[in-house]
Amino acid sequence: MRLDEPRVAPLEADAWDEKAKEVMARFDGPGEVLNIFKTLVNHPDLMRRWIVFGNHVLGKSTLDVRERELVILRIGYLCQSAYEWGQHVLISREAGMTEEEIRSCKTDSRAPGLSELDRLLFKATEELHEDAFIADETWSGLQEYLSTQQLMDLVFTVGQYNLVSMALNTFGVQADKGLPGWDV
């Protein structure tokens, strides 16, 4: 966590105006609303539009769940977004990923023991993070495993979670209760 206190304070339900209540209605139910959403509701119009894209990347992507989570964890780690990392450790576990697979996301694409696809996914994520471009060699390698739509979803997944990591880090979104840390 880069900030010990939020720069943009999360809004509790009693502080929501009508626009905020409308966008937060999707979270009405049992359980605590996550700090990311309580923070983003400070700008309900932005949040409403961002959720549409985020829902595609998280729930309607053509990438397999494991591949999607590998790149989300990798970009979260590269961005040093503890909140993003912790949330997606939980999601990865629910998806059946092993602790070893999750921990591998802290290593780079040259780490021994990675499958060729995992190496290429990490390499693409690293290249997008470094200079916003997947090199020809990496792209060609990925084409052996992924369709055109999956390649497009890969780029947008890395971009989405790079953006989310920037927002979480800059706004100072604090960890929710029970969120795993970097020690996974």
Please bin the fraction of helical residues.
Answer: 55-70%
CATH class of the largest domain: Mainly Alpha
Q: Number of helical segments?
A: 9
Count of spatially separate domains: 2
Q: Identify the overall geometry.
A: globular
How much of the sequence lies in strands comes to: under 5%
- Any guess at the CATH architecture of the largest domain? Up-down Bundle
Q: Please compute the radius of gyration using only Cα atoms.
A: 17 Å
The CATH H-level superfamily of the largest domain is AhpD-like
Molecular structure report:
The protein is mainly α. It has two domains: 13-58, no CATH class; 63-170, AhpD-like (Up-down Bundle), CATH 1.20.1290.10. Helices cover 60% and strands 0% of the residues. The protein has nine helices and no strands. The longest helix has 24 residues, at 148-171. It starts with 17 loop residues before the first helix and ends in a 13-residue tail after the last helix. The model has no long low-confidence stretch (mean pLDDT 96).
